[in-house]
């Protein structure tokens, strides 16, 4: 319903009547972001920027994820959007298509910005469906496995075992074996032992956050991609999608099967608390999660956690989705000149070095990665589980799409039904047809 509502609001913006704003070089620049943990670091950047540019005042506002997008869509409709806002690859394509954000190709060229200075793959994520650039990457993320080290030690599973997990959609490989062994019922019987009671589980071997629709960034993407499956006909801005592919449906069926076996909680269980809370309470032994959660998991008290890379799949390699956030300039801004100066600074080595030292996210400027590793290393995690995949070329880009709100609504509903056992996995074929129809209609 939320996706449908935001789609309606965005449609109301249309492609005409957008306030063109102005190119003011001075004045107040409003800046929005959703991540509270990153706010202090970006406030430090704002303080430094204002010292260098006393004619520009940066006003930062932070909102939670859901409120953020609702407020932003409302702002677009009312021509009261912030001058600059943290943007996501899932969202910006439609903003660009409707003329709501500013392409920055000319500014990047005039400023002589070296795009090769960024972590490989991150700059490509911000080239829109029209071939224009709408952002400079300010961070990057990948996926890994956080696990309860006390539980693995007690179960006789070493850190080396966790680093070398294998997976396939037929029997789950050593990944499923490990998940099963770490699952424990209320009588202390493990999931791979006789007498295990799946109706009374104390600790699930693998945690569940959601059905993952439509991209399964932290839930199942790292598995499906190792089968050779692709989201669509193109890595980004595809128009034909492959949720009907047997390789995907087999992967999804395996993943759902963990619930049937009692190794992963039912979808309704996720309403009882977030994955990190369940981890802290000892309800989950392993959670597949994004690198942006490193500091959060590192701050959990009363539990010793470690980090492992995603498992090696049928391709003989690992896989992890790579994404990057950037900052977009609203077309309606009255101070687009000043806004560009701020965006350029946010993506600079000076600001990203400050963010790297904060140890809450990995900045996208390649020269800051080592600082980021050291800062995040203070959490106790070996973050090479994330960075090695980038260096080894086993990452794949976040599959940006147009018609994103409708896409999300269709696939989220279909996948929620499958994971709740209200529908079979093969019903994803019909959902795939609906998604493809969005693009057929657009082309017509």
From TrEMBL:
Record-linked Gene3D superfamilies: Periplasmic binding protein-like II (3.40.190.10)
Pfam families: SBP_bac_8
Highest taxon of the lineage: Bacteria
Alphabetical keyword list: Signal, Transport
Entries under InterPro entries matching the protein: SBP
Statement: the UniProt record of this protein carries the keyword S-adenosyl-L-methionine: no
SUPFAM superfamilies recorded: Periplasmic binding protein-like II
PANTHER family linked: MALTOSE-BINDING PERIPLASMIC PROTEIN (PTHR30061), MALTOSE_MALTODEXTRIN-BINDING PERIPLASMIC PROTEIN (PTHR30061:SF50)
Family designation: Belongs to the bacterial solute-binding protein 1 family.
Protein name: Sugar ABC transporter substrate-binding protein
């Amino acid at each position: 319903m939320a996706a449908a509502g935001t789609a309606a609001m965005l449609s109301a913006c249309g492609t005409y009547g957008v306030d063109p704003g102005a190119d003011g070089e001075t004045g107040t620049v409003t800046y929005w972001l959703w991540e509270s943990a990153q706010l202090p670091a970006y406030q430090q950047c704002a303080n430094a920027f204002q010292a260098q540019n006393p004619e520009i005042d940066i006003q930062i506002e932070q909102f939670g994820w859901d409120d953020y997008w609702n407020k932003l869509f409302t702002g677009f409709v009312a021509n009261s959007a912030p001058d600059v806002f943290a943007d996501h690859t899932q969202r910006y394509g439609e903003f660009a298509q409707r003329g709501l954000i500013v392409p920055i190709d000319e500014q990047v060229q005039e400023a002589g910005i070296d795009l090769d200075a960024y972590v490989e793959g991150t700059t490509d994520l911000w080239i829109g469906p029209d071939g224009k650039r709408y952002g400079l990457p300010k961070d990057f993320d990948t996926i890994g496995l956080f696990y309860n080290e006390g539980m693995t030690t007690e179960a006789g599973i070493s850190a080396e075992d966790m680093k070398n997990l294998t997976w396939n959609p037929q029997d789950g490989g050593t990944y499923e074996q490990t998940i099963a062994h770490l699952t424990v019922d209320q009588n202390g019987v493990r999931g791979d032992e006789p007498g295990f009671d799946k109706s009374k589980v104390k600790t699930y071997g693998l945690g569940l956050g959601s059905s993952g629709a439509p991209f399964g960034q932290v839930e199942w993407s790292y598995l499906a991609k190792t089968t050779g499956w692709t989201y669509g006909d193109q890595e980004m801005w595809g128009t034909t999608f492959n949720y009907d592919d047997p390789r995907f449906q087999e992967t999804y069926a395996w993943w759902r099967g963990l619930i049937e076996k009692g190794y992963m909680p039912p979808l309704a269980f996720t309403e009882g608390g977030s994955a990190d809370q369940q981890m802290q309470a000892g309800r989950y032994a392993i959670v597949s999660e994004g690198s942006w959660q490193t500091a959060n998991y590192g701050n959990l008290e009363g539990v010793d956690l470690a980090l492992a890379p995603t498992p090696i799949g049928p391709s003989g390699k690992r896989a992890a989705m790579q994404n990057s956030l950037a900052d977009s300039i609203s077309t309606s801004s009255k101070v687009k000149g000043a806004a560009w100066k701020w965006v350029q600074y946010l993506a600079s080595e000076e600001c990203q070095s400050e963010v790297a030292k904060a140890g809450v996210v990995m900045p996208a400027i390649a020269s800051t990665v080592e600082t980021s590793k050291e800062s995040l290393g203070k959490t106790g995690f070996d973050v090479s589980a994330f960075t090695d995949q980038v260096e080894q070329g086993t990452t794949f880009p976040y599959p940006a799409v147009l018609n994103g709100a409708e896409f999300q609504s269709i696939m989220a509903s279909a996948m929620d039904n499958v994971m709740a056992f209200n529908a079979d996995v093969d019903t994803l074929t019909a959902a795939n047809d609906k998604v493809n129809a969005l693009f057929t209609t657009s082309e017509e």
